[in-house]
């Protein structure tokens, strides 16, 4: 959770800095904010590609911390930016070194947890991400009110320094607390008996442990699997159904009210992600224990749709706009549900699971390199009529496609139960029962909650 916390605090820096003096200090006057977000996304998309190969080759307990240390360094140097071009270059590098983190953490979760428990574990991790967003606002509020002008630096510049001071030590800590995978475990925290216990319980759930090399045959097998293509489209709709969380609309709206100081504005900006903590825990636990993935996604995005509908209408009482912005983080509450779903459907092969996570996340995220430039132009904020309408349409498509995918998965499971052949991968694809309840107590050793 702490890892996700520092990660997302850094994600949100630019939005908070933009309304805290960065715009004026660097002379921004057009769509620079959305362009900075796009540069970050391009770096993250391109940076992910090598990890389809590296996830099964290198110990995850070394790979992710190494990338995070470099990521923290580029977080730091953003404080010295004096132009849009310089800051854009830093944002690209931040995205590049951040690339492995999100799919990497979900690859780790998929290496240890069964399909009926992975959403809860991922949800606890994702709470750290929403907590990081909340903290970014509070840190910026403190920096604006107490550090503005100290040593000749504006408050928004101190924000980058503070986040780097948090990031680098946490990244180093990762060498000692990340468990790795059962095939390449972190022996600093896991004993052989812990790893063997984990392997045994996963094998009982038809989960393949041995990590195989990535070959061209792997690409062919993944490409022939209908689930890969279906879940790819689900993820594309998901990424575009939640870009309202990073568009800065809430902060721009607060600033446009012209009744709050910079520090107070950032304090208020923390409310929406704070509610996101509740949304995330509710949706992820409900997915594992009651609803299953498709209905958990539905609950999450029905709440998002209510808020988006109000934002599209816009000419409503101010209290209604407050309510609408408070629903924003329900859009990402089901993230761990979706990536847990992908993990469980590809659990028969670690290398295919790694490749699927990377390709699905890369392609889906790459669409957000250009969609915000079209529908969330900074100069059109905070109303963003085109943007909120676009996100609303994607949320509806996400819900619909999730149920279609679940229907065909359940039909495939019934066919297997009758002894029929299963389409998809030509490897031993023993698809998980996504709607199953708790099966056994989750124990991978006393260190399992550290992920």
Walk me through this protein's architecture.
Residues 415-451 are annotated as: Disordered. Residues 433-442 have a biased composition (Polar residues). The protein is globular and about 65 Å long. It has 21 helices and no strands. It is mostly helical and 451 residues long. Helix 8 runs antiparallel to helix 14 (262-268) and helix 12 (226-240) packs antiparallel against helix 21. 56% of the residues are buried. It has a single domain (2-182, 210-420), classed as Growth Hormone, Chain: A, CATH 1.20.1250.20. The model is unreliable at 1-6 and 421-451 (pLDDT under 50). Helix content is 69%, strand content 0%.
Distinctive features:
451 residues; mainly alpha; Growth Hormone, Chain: A; 21 helices; 0% strand; globular
CATH architectural category: Up-down Bundle
Shape annotation = globular
User: How is the biggest beta sheet arranged?
Assistant: none
Percent of sequence in beta strands: under 5%
**Uncertain ranges:** 1-6, 421-451
- Helical proportion? 55-70%
Oligomer: single chain
Query: Please, how many helices?
Result: 21
Number of domains: 1
CATH topology name, in short, is: Growth Hormone, Chain: A
Q: Please identify the top-level CATH class.
A: Mainly Alpha
Q: What radius of gyration results from the CA coordinates?
A: 22 Å
Which series of helices and strands comes N to C? HHHHHHHHHHHHHHHHHHHHH
Could you outline the blueprint of secondary structure elements for this entry?
Blueprint: H1 2-11, H2 13-25, H3 32-48, H4 51-54, H5 60-77, H6 84-98, H7 101-112, H8 118-147, H9 155-177, H10 192-204, H11 216-223, H12 226-240, H13 249-257, H14 262-268, H15 271-291, H16 293-313, H17 318-326, H18 335-345, H19 350-367, H20 371-375, H21 385-417
């Amino acid at each position: 959770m702490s890892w996700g916390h520092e990660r997302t605090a850094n994600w949100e820096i630019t939005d908070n800095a933009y309304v805290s003096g960065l715009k004026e200090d660097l002379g921004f006057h057009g769509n620079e904010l959305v362009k900075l977000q796009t540069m970050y996304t391009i770096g993250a998309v391109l940076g992910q590609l090598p990890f389809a190969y590296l996830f099964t080759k290198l110990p995850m307990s070394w790979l992710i911390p190494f990338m995070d240390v470099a990521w923290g360094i580029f977080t730091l140097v953003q404080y010295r930016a004096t132009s849009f071009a310089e800051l854009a270059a830093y944002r690209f590098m931040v995205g590049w070194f951040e690339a492995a983190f999100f799919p990497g953490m979900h690859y780790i979760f998929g290496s240890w947890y069964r399909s009926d428990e992975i959403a809860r574990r991922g949800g606890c991790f994702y709470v750290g991400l929403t907590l990081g967003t909340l903290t970014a606002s509070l840190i910026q509020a403190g920096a604006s009110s107490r550090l503005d002008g100290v040593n000749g630096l504006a408050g928004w510049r101190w924000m980058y320094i503070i986040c780097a001071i948090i990031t680098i030590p946490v990244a180093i800590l990762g060498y000692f607390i990340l468990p790795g995978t059962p095939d390449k475990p972190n022996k600093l925290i896991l004993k052989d008996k812990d790893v063997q216990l984990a392997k045994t319980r996963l094998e009982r759930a038809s989960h393949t442990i041995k990590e195989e090399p990535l070959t061209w045959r792997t690409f062919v097998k993944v490409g022939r699997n209908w689930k890969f293509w279906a879940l790819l489209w689900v993820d594309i709709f998901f990424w575009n159904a939640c870009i309202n969380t990073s568009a800065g609309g809430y902060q721009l709206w607060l600033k446009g009210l012209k009744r709050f100081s910079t520090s107070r504005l950032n304090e208020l900006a923390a409310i929406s992600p704070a509610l996101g903590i509740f949304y995330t825990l509710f949706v992820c636990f409900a997915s594992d224990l009651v609803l299953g993935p498709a209905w958990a996604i539905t609950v999450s995005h029905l709440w998002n749709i209510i808020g988006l509908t109000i934002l599209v209408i816009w000419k409503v009482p101010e209290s209604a706009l407050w309510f609408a912005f408070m629903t924003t983080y329900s859009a990402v509450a089901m993230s761990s549900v979706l990536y847990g779903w992908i993990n469980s459907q590809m659990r028969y092969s670690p290398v295919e699971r790694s490749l699927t996570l990377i390709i699905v996340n890369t392609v889906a995220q790459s669409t957000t390199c250009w969609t915000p430039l079209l529908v969330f132009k900074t100069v059109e904020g905070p109303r963003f009529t085109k943007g909120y309408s676009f996100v609303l349409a994607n949320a509806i498509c996400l819900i619909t496609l999730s149920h279609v995918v679940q229907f065909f998965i359940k039909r495939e499971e019934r066919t297997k139960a009758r002894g029929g052949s299963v389409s998809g991968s030509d490897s031993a694809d023993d698809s998980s029962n996504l709607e199953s309840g708790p099966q056994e107590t989750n124990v991978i050793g006393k260190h399992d909650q550290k992920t």
